[in-house]
Amino acid sequence: MIPSNSYKQHSSRSLFITGTDTGVGKTVLTAAICCALQRQGKQVGVFKPVETGVNPQQKERSDGGRLGQLVSSTALRDPIDLYCYPLPLAPLACARQTGL
């Protein structure tokens, strides 16, 4: 998530949210912070580098898709997810099983 007051000034601040397992609330926390910053008038962008358990036909219903719907600027929406795996496993296990 990248909050900033003005992209014209080329200044931005970043916040990196991490967790030690899947399903521990990283996306929920990110969504809450995005909403709070936007209420303060900040422009917010999100980036979810890896997501697992994603149905390719319903990507908009994934965590990354939902986070993308929260951001205030359409210019900041794509890409949200760098790597998406269909298997609902830890990212390393998914990467190994898919050969990436």
Question: What descriptive keywords fit this protein?
Answer:
100 residues; alpha+beta; Rossmann fold; two-stranded antiparallel ribbon; 3 helices; 30% helix; disordered N terminus
Secondary-structure topology with pairs:
Blueprint: E1 2-4, H1 26-39, E2 43-45, E3 48-52, H2 63-70, E4 81-85, H3 91-98
Parallel strand pairs: 3-4
Antiparallel strand pairs: 1-2
Task: Write up what this structure looks like.
The chain has about 100 residues and is α+β, with helices and mostly antiparallel strands. It has a single domain (about 1-100), classed as Rossmann fold. The protein has 3 helices and 4 strands, in the order βαββαβα. The strands form 2 sheets. The protein has a two-stranded antiparallel ribbon with strand order 1-2. Strands 3-4 form a two-stranded parallel sheet. The longest helix has 14 residues, at about 25-40. It starts with a strand and ends with a helix.
- Helices, by number, come to 3
CATH class: Alpha Beta
Distance between the termini: 25 Å
Percent in helix: 25-40%
Strand content: 15-25%
Fold-level CATH name: Rossmann fold
Number of domains: 1
Extended strand count: 4
* Approximate shape: elongated
CATH architecture: 3-Layer(aba) Sandwich
Low-pLDDT residue spans: 1-7
Structural class: alpha+beta
The major pleated sheet works out as: 2 strands, antiparallel
Give average pLDDT, whole number. 78
Order of helices and strands: EHEEHEH
Q: Could you tell me the radius of gyration in angstroms?
A: 14 Å
Instruction: Please identify which CATH superfamily we are dealing with.
Output: P-loop containing nucleotide triphosphate hydrolases
Give the strand line-up of the largest sheet: 1-2
